[in-house]
């Protein structure tokens, strides 16, 4: 390729063959979308449930939502039962329920670990099996 055929940048300088033409560069402010990857785990739907007959609000807080006690509200389905389906990638998560502003243990949790505030966090292991 001769010099005359090389692309010219916005500054009027010719680019080198190893440098892509400015038209190939993404525009400022535009983000490229991530393409699906086999290395990136798929998110699986995990159901959180709690039976609290006299609650006004029930939320779940944990490592999946930065321990925000109001970020993830459960839905009341009657008979004192509350639930929420969350898409979570495979991994290990800790969580607690928040009932009317008070932190509550998950009575159905099979594994719990002590937390820094003297309570116990439930442990959830999301595996590929949850995705099926």
Task: Explain this structure.
The protein is mainly beta and 132 residues long. The chain has a domain at 48-131: Immunoglobulin-like. Helix content is 0%, strand content 36%. The protein has strands at 44-51, 58-62, 75-78, 81-88, 91-99, 102-104, 112-114, 120-126. The strands form 2 sheets. Strands 2, 5, 6, 7 and 8 form a 5-stranded antiparallel sheet that branches. A hairpin with a 2-residue loop joins strand 3 and strand 4. The N and C termini lie far apart (54 Å). Mean pLDDT is 76; it is low at 1-37.
**What multimeric state do the chains show?**
single chain
How many helical stretches?
Answer: 0
Structure summary, number of beta strands: 8
Given helix and strand content, the structural type is: mainly beta
Distance between the termini: 54 Å
The CATH class label of the domain at 48-131 is Mainly Beta
Report the order of strands and helices: EEEEEEEE
The main sheet comes to:
5 strands, antiparallel
What fraction strand?
A: 35-45%
CATH fold category name of the domain at 48-131: Immunoglobulin-like
Architecture of the domain at 48-131, according to CATH? Answer: Sandwich
Low-confidence stretches: 1-37
Radius of gyration: 25 Å
Shape: globular
> Helical amount among residues, as a percent range?
under 10%
Mean pLDDT: 76
**What is the CATH homologous superfamily assignment of the domain at 48-131?**
Immunoglobulins
């Amino acid at each position: 390729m001769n010099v005359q055929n090389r692309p010219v940048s916005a500054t009027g300088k010719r680019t080198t063959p190893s440098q892509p033409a400015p038209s190939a560069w993404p525009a400022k402010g535009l983000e490229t979308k991530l393409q699906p990857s086999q290395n990136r785990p798929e998110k699986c739907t995990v159901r959180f449930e709690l039976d609290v007959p006299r609650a006004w609000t029930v939320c779940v807080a944990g490592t999946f939502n930065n321990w925000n006690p109001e970020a993830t509200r459960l839905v009341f389905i009657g008979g004192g039962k509350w639930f929420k389906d969350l898409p979570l990638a495979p991994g290990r998560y800790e969580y607690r329920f928040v009932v009317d502003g008070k932190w509550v243990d998950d009575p159905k949790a099979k594994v719990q670990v002590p937390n820094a505030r003297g309570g116990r966090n439930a442990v959830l292991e999301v595996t590929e099996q949850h995705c099926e």
